Amino acid sequence: MIEPSRPFDISESDIRESDIPERKRRTILPILEVPSRYRVPTRGEARFEVSGSTLRDCIAEAEKRFPGFQELIINSEGHPKRFVRFFLNGDALERDALDSALEAEDTITIMASAAGG
């Protein structure tokens, strides 16, 4: 006698990434958040994924997709412009942190400092 089939439980940990067809895999990439002041090259996009293992890599990737973006935030010496600040997952980064390592799920926020009196 054949027993009726029974559903079985399978957890995500039971599935190896290699078991998932290439077209179904989703790579998680860092997210770059851009204030309105710097959105002209991004054609208004405020938030988008970028590939890169460092902040500098992610900015270079954004420049490839949106020519003119990098020159708005990075000076000719390769440093952040005077009134540009970067935040990683909500925490302010030092000005010399462009080579900081990033994780796949990080969010990089660019802020334009305001000055005046």
Helices and strands, in order, run as: EEHHEEE
CATH fold-level label: Ubiquitin-like (UB roll)
Gross geometry: globular
- In round numbers, the mean pLDDT is 83
CATH evolutionary superfamily: Beta-grasp domain
Ranges where pLDDT stays below 50 over 5 or more residues in a row are: none
CATH architecture classification: Roll
CATH class: Alpha Beta
Distance between the termini: 88 Å
Radius of gyration: 21 Å
Short account of what is shown:
This protein is 14% helix and 16% strand. It has 117 residues and is an alpha+beta fold.
Furnish the topology, listing elements before pairings.
Layout: E1 31-33, E2 47-49, H1 55-65, H2 69-73, E3 84-88, E4 91-92, E5 107-112
Parallel strand pairs: 1-5
Antiparallel strand pairs: 1-2, 3-4, 3-5
Provide a descriptive summary of the structure in words.
It is a single chain. By secondary structure, this protein is α+β, with helices and mostly antiparallel strands. The protein has 2 helices and 5 strands. Strand 3 and strand 4 (91-92) form a beta hairpin. The mean pLDDT is 83.
